[in-house]
Amino acid sequence: MPRISIKAIAIAFIAEFAADILCQLFLFALFAGDAPSQMSPEEQLAFTQKVVETTAFLPWAMVLGMATTVGGAYFAARLAKRIPYYHGLAMGIVGIVYILVVSRGDFDGYTWIGLLLTLPASLYGAHLARKHMPPESDEAQ
After folding, report:
1. 3-state DSSP call for residue 106?
2. What is d(CA 10, CA 29) in angstroms, rounded to the nearest whole number?
3. Tell me, what DSSP letter sits at residue 3?
């Protein structure tokens, strides 16, 4: 089995995770509008839950999350500079493990969609990276 660059996977996952957080912060600010500045922790939790449940926050978070998954796999493959599809697959597996850990067994429709689309999105990111790599990068080293 070809050697996968753990360093490239780790760096790309951290970058993808940071991009996900930034996207979610942007979306929340966009959908929350003018939130009252003085709220108790209970009021903040209720407000956050209301924004997430009553707006198009979750569908947009899913779309942007899939975009960062494609980007993370692309980044991992480009960092590794070899066997892009293996690195894309590794990013997809890490993403699925992350989804399973974060969801803690509480699966809703968005969790299932995320589980089903993570591997194809990661492989697509690797495919995009392969287009920008020399042909010998596909060979196992």
Report:
1. coil
2. 29
3. P
CA distance linking residue 119 with residue 139, whole number of Å: 21
- Answer for the pair 74, 85: CB distance below 8 angstroms, yes or no: no
Query: CA-to-CA distance for 70 and 67, rounded, in angstroms?
Result: 5
The per-residue DSSP string of 8-48 comes to HHHHHHHHHHHHHHHHHHHHHHHHH-S--S---HHHHHHHH
pLDDT in tens, 74-92: 999 999 988 999 999 999 9
Q: How distant, in Å, are the alpha carbons of 23, 49, 62 from that of 42?
A: 24, 11, 26
pLDDT digits (tens, 9 = 90+) for 89-129: 999 999 999 999 988 877 888 889 989 999 999 999 999 99
